[in-house]
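Recall that a protein's primary structure is simply its ordered list of amino acids. Everything else, from secondary elements to tertiary packing, is in principle encoded there. The following example makes that idea concrete.
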Amino acid sequence: MKLKGAPVIFVPGNAGSYKQVRSLASVALRKGMDNDRGIHMDYFTVNFEEQLSALYGGYLENQKLFLRIAILAVRTLYKEANNVDKSIILVGHSMGGKVAQAVIQDPAIAKYINTIIFISSPIDKPVVNFDPKINEFYSNTDGYFHNKRTTHLPNRQTNVCLNYQDKIPHQGNESKILDNILMISMGGGNRDLLVRDGLTTSQYNDIHAMTSSIPKVWLSCDHLSAVWCLQLVLVINRFIFGISVIDENKNVFFSPDKYYRTQTAINYFVKPLNKPKSNEVYFPKLNSGSSWQEDSKIAFRKVFKNGLRADYNHLLPTAKYKELKKIYIEIDSYEDFENDWVFGCTAHRTEASGLYCQKGTSLSHFVQTIPSHDNYRYMVLLDIHRMLKYYPDWTHILVRLKPTNKPTSLKIDAYSVEDRKYKIKAPKFSLPKLKTLVNETVMGTIHTGVLIEGLDEPFPTVQFDIEPVECGDDEFGVTAKICIPWARGFNRHIHLTHDTKVKTIYVNVPFSTPSGYNTTQNPVTLDLFLNPSCRYKISYQFSIAGTFSKIVQEFYHWLPAHLTAVLFLVLRNQIVSFQNSEDALFVKPYAGFFQSKSLYIVTGCRLLKKLLLNLKFLPISPDTSNYSFYVSIIIHGTAIVLSIVSVFSIWTILTFHGNILHKIALKLTRLSTASSEILMKVVTTLPLSFGVLFISISVGTCSGIGLTLATIFYFLVISNAYKDYLENWAWDKAKGIFKRIRQKIRSTSKNKGTVALSQREIIAVDGNPGQELIPNNENGDTNELDDSNEVANEEKCSYFEGLENFAFHITMLMLLGIMSALNFGLSVAWIKAKYQGHIHEHLPDPFIIPTIITLTCLSVLLQLGAPRKSSGYHYVAIILYLCVCGCILFCQEIVYRLSYLITFVYVCVALQEVCYNFYTLILDRRR
């Protein structure tokens, strides 16, 4: 097979199919067929069998090796290409982007890679750090790139809103062998609920862009649609074709010049690059029908509904606008104005032709594109003072419109900066209170800006309401541009029309400011491009809904750590109440869940973290994230509520739906009723068999499967124990009722007997005056007294008699459930491998040792009938306090560490029970 196109390899991501390349390849095919130069692409794709690489890190290393082999295989297809160096472009979606980045760690592969395009990829940090393999994969890649490629990190002086070309400080290395590879990353924006904005960029990238700010895309994409969104696919292919070169033998290859590739990428993904032109442009004196018009109005609008038959030249005298400083010029047309249309010139006046410019200097490098619904919008914002400083001879600004048969409009808005820039302080956590920023804009206003100070974290959200007061005959329309000064490539464009249901703009930032960054000097900017025919009311407020939605999106992965911390504290409270209570019967089944002390621990952990960050000798460092206290409180409060809901759900299922769950478990495990009964009897009679059974399953399959089945059977054991409790409770209640009835009968007969006895005694006394009155019913009274005391004691007993161990075991069950949930990705990977017939595929199991230890400890606890009263549990309570702190300090970002903490807690409780058992045996022998 002889291939002459340039090779592009598509790398699918988490659960991604190799077929996702069809959108990119089909557009490239059509573009190649319509290309006069003969440039075309050869698209290849990699089949990872839709592996869940974001949930299970064991896939990543294998995918990297497979991609390496694929690259070498593609290279062999071009060996006969007349010695042309066929470098390759990698396009990675989702986790495929991370695999594409990792494969160039091999120097033998890196030399073949020209450019890497990341589409919605978590590059520097995983979305959720589920297992050690994911963490190891990211750490190895980061360590290699840190030594082999220049890093770009913003500092406190960075402000990309003033100039995109503002150089972000970088740290280089002597051996920067990867710097020739161009890396471009893209994020989907607000619609991408799987990979949040801040994860889609990288300190090693050359260019980053959000899809909502890419010219001719202007849309936010969800995670999946990013690979087939037509607007985005077109831009990606335009860039790839733009850096392609064809030789005399019709061989197509990619340009090795990185500067050229970078400029081309900026042109397509950031903003069209119109380079400053030093040569002056000469204008014909008198074209047939061309017109020259001078106007010095502050607000001007001219509409050509039927287009233009000849050139239209509009002159703006600089002397008239000098005091206003800023002049905004916009062209709104259904035709793409690719040529120069705005110039600076020196005008001359003649009697024959009037005022005109003979020549001018192009200002097209200041032109920017504004997103629009169905037409093209170009604008230029000129600083008259700055312009006249360098070109004092210019007398006019010339706007030159070429002939067209499509509707076109020219809009001009001259203003003073002080009149159009509004500074606000971003409101903190508070109740929504609408504040009016502009009561009513002046008719003719096209451009205004808002400077927002204090937005330094990724969750506070400010809501701006843009309400049209009056629009005349025109339709409502607002375009907003949000610029984050410390985050290059995170500009967002929002377009509101009369069809938009909600006239609201939400402003927030993708990630926190660099250390020491001053948002007062470098605030977030919101530029509003308005319809000059309308007047608007602009107001703002703190958005509770927007803020909480950002907290959920940014910090939902903290919830497992905080939920585990809550359960540790609940377990500690249950142990303490069980040990300190005089009667264990009074330990209620929901004991410990209704608490708020853990909120104080969160506060203490924040203070402790500042101390630990300065200690260099720790084997692992705490999470370096430093967000507001509100986030930790909200997430932890959610965890408390979730724990309460979970425990009541478990008790509800135990009480009302235990049999249903038992049947579901039988279907999941494919056991017959007889087999399950035998298994339950064996586990109940010999609890150590519980550990043997599920450890064997874990070793034979994977730790995730073993933990999941162990959790199910642990619940069934608790369910059977609860059914036994209900039977005993019902029997005891029936006995109590029977005793009360018998007592009543006896008391009735006693009253009758007492009356008869009194009559006999009276007769006897009359017959024998010296005889004493002695009652003759001692045995009856004694039995009756015993019965009444027994009934009274029963009434004094708590309703929860017999439930003293249930609270402990349900908490341990929930911890085991969290541990099995953390192994969900591994479980799915094993099931998928078995379903696809890959029986002998080796899947690394990083949790097999913690699983074996946990299941062993659980079987020991069941065997010894834990918990029992022992002074050793006071030490366990202290350890649980430390584990709560460990969850919050070390496990918020690196979630898989929770498995080790849960295992450690199981070990501590089991050791305490074993030690207490040996202690009692020794005491018994001494006696």
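The chain is about 45% helix and 20% strand. The two ends are 91 Å apart (CA to CA).
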